[in-house]
Amino acid sequence: MDKEEKQFNKDDQFINEEAIDQSGELAQAEGEALPPMGFEVIRREFAKDKAAMVALFIFIAIILVAFIGAMIVDHDAATRVDLFSRYAKPGEKGFFLGAEEGGRDVLSLLIIGTRNSVFIGFTVTIITSIISIALGIIAGYYGGFVEDIMMRIVDFIIILPPLVLIIVIVTIVRRFDMWSLIAILSALGWAGGVRLFRTSALSEASKDYISASKTMGTPDWKIMYLELMPNLSSLIITNLTLSLSGNIGIETGLTFLGFGLPSETPSLGTLIAAANNPDVIQNKVWVWLPAVCVILALMLSINYMGQAFQRVADSRQRIG
Questions:
Q1: 0.90 exceeded by pTM
Q2: Per residue in 125-170, pLDDT tens?
Q3: How far from chain centre, in Å, is Cα 200?
Q4: Do 120 and 248 meet the contact criterion of CB atoms below 8 Å apart?
Q5: Which of 56, 63, 211, 275 suits 152 as a labelling partner, its CA being 20 to 30 A distant?
Q6: How many degrees, rounded to 5, is the angle at CA 92 between CA 86 and CA 98?
Q7: Radius of gyration (Cα) for the chain, nearest Å?
Q8: How far is it, in rounded angstroms, from Cα 186 to Cα 86?
C-alpha cells in the first residue's frame, strides 16, 4: 500500500512539473509574441537608425561639454574685458579659439554661451509643454463647453504676433536678463501645443478603457493624467524634441537681433551677433564660426532624433 501511494505521489509530482514547464513555455511564447512597447520601441528605432544614433551621441557630447565645462571655466575671467587681446587669433596669447572684440576668450564664451542657450531652450520647452499637455488633455477629455472656451482663448493667443510682442516687452523691461527671456518665451509659446494634445486626447477619450474607468467611478484627474496621458507618451516625446530645437533657435535669433540676452551674458546668439560688420565676417571668422558650428550640430542632432521619435509615434513608419 505504501509503495502504491509513493508511486502515485511520484506520478502526481511528475505531472505537476510537466504542467509547470508547459505553462512556462506557453507564457514565454506569449511574451515573445507581444509587440515591443514604450522605451523598448524607442531603443529599437534608434538602434536601427544610424543617423539618429550619431545625432544622439553628438547631442549628449555637446550637453556634457557645455554643462560640465561651464562649471570648470572661470566666469569672471571669461567675461573680463582685455583690450590688449582684442581679436587675438587662435593660438595667440593662450587663446585656443582666439579672442573676440573685447579680448575675451572665445572658447570660454562658447562653453558658457552653449550652456545658457541650451538651458533657456530646455526650461522654456519644459514649461510650455507642461502647460500645453495639461490644458490639451483637459480640453480633449471634457469636450463641449469647456473645450470651446479653452480653444477660443488659444485661438486668440495664437493669432498674436509673438516676435513683435517679445520685442516690445524687451524694450519696456529695464532689467532684462535670462529669466525675463524665459518668462516671456514661456508665456507666448504654449498655445500651439494645446491644439496638438487636445486633438489626440479627444480621440483617446472616446475609447473603451476611458469609459470603463468612468463607470468604475475613477476620479477625472486620475483618468486624464494616469491613464490617458501615458498613451500620448510618444507624441509628448516628439513634441518635446522638436520644441527644444525651436526654442534654442528663437533665443539665438532674438539675441542676434539685439532683443534677447544682454551682451554681457554669453550665449550662442551673442557670439554670432559679433559678426555685425564685413571685417569680422570675412577676416575674423574665429569669433562667430564656432558658435555657428555648435548651433548647426545642435539643430541637426535634435531634428534627426525628432525624426526617430516621430517614427516611434507612428507604427507605419517604423524601421525597427
A1: no
A2: 999 999 999 999 999 999 888 889 999 999 888 888 877 888 888 7
A3: 19
A4: yes
A5: 211
A6: 55
A7: 28
A8: 37
